[in-house]
Each structure stands twice: as structure tokens, then as C-alpha cells.
Design brief:
173 residues; alpha+beta; four-stranded antiparallel β-sheet; elongated
Length: 173
């Protein structure tokens, strides 16, 4: 019966440990940067890693199912609370999530931003090719999104210009 619940399992430590792991993973992903999580935000990345680790621990160690369930439930509650708090306090959202960054403004490559984002010029050029950009003069903006994706905003018609709302919340440096 110990594989379902072990009386020696410290459930309170699991709740506190889950919170500490959650904060640690968020902090580390913020330090490492946008490039780390490809399609995830820092928040989603931390949650996914933590849940995966807990599940792995349940399946491969002496952690009981109840102990693991409490840890997963703690993370789910934390996820809910953080989502709610982010809506109430935009400054918390800014602390947890990365803002999109401009990599190219019109035909000018922003080398300092490339360096900060740890993206090579060759990778930027590859994204321009994927977007069928034939000349730098077609580029209005290239943005490293908070998800780690790179968006290329370019024009094929000379009469169309970039709506400034599309760059709302994007940082220049």
C-alpha cells in the first residue's frame, strides 16, 4: 500500500518545494533568455518542466502517488494564482514574461539586439529568406517574439506601410 501513500511523506514540504521549484525555473528561464523556450513563454516552460519532473519522480523513484498528486495540484494552483495576479498586476507579467525585441528596423539590422538575443546574422537572414524577402528595402521590421519565434514584417506593395500598432510592446533594445 506504500506505493499509493506513505505516511512518512511530508506533504507540506511538497507544497513549499513545488513553489520554490516553480520560482527557480521561472528565474532561470528569465536569465537564460528568449531563445531557450522556442514555442513556450517562460511561464509555460517552467510549468511544463516542473510537471514533467514531478511525473518522472513519481514513476521512477519512491515518491508516492499521493505525494506527487499534491505536488502537481500545488503547481496547478500556483499556475492559476499567477495567471490571475498577472491580470491584476501588469508589473508581475513584465517580471515573469519577456517582451518582444526588434531585430531589424526597416532595412537596418540592429546588431546590438542580435547580440543580446544571441541570434546570429545568418539566422536572421535565413528567416528573411523564409519570409520571401528579396531585398532589405522590403523589410519594415523583424521581431523576436516572446515565444522565441521570429516574425518578419515586410511589404510587397510599395504603397502599404507598417501600422505602428503592430509594434506595440516591442522593445528597441
Amino acid at each position: 500500500m506504500e506505493w499509493i501513500y506513505n505516511l512518512k511523506d511530508p506533504l507540506w514540504e511538497t507544497v513549499v518545494g513545488s513553489f520554490l521549484i516553480f520560482i527557480t525555473v521561472i528565474t532561470l528561464t528569465r536569465i537564460i533568455g528568449l531563445r531557450t523556450f522556442a514555442k513556450f513563454t517562460a511561464y509555460d516552460f517552467a510549468f511544463t518542466i516542473a510537471i514533467g519532473s514531478i511525473i518522472s519522480s513519481i514513476l521512477t523513484s519512491s515518491t508516492s502517488i499521493i505525494h506527487g498528486a499534491v505536488a502537481i495540484a500545488s503547481l496547478l494552483v500556483l499556475s492559476y494564482v499567477f495567471s490571475y495576479l498577472q491580470r491584476l498586476f501588469p508589473s508581475l507579467k513584465a517580471l515573469i514574461s519577456n517582451k518582444p525585441m526588434l531585430l531589424m528596423k526597416e532595412d537596418k539590422i540592429l546588431y546590438e539586439n542580435l547580440k543580446q538575443a544571441r541570434i546570429e546574422k545568418s539566422q536572421l537572414i535565413a528567416k528573411l529568406r523564409e519570409a520571401n524577402v528579396l531585398d532589405f528595402n522590403q523589410v519594415e521590421a523583424v521581431v523576436l517574439e516572446s515565444t522565441g519565434d521570429i516574425s518578419v514584417l515586410h511589404k510587397t506593395n510599395k504603397e502599404v506601410s507598417l501600422n505602428s500598432d503592430l509594434l506595440e510592446g516591442v522593445r528597441d533594445s
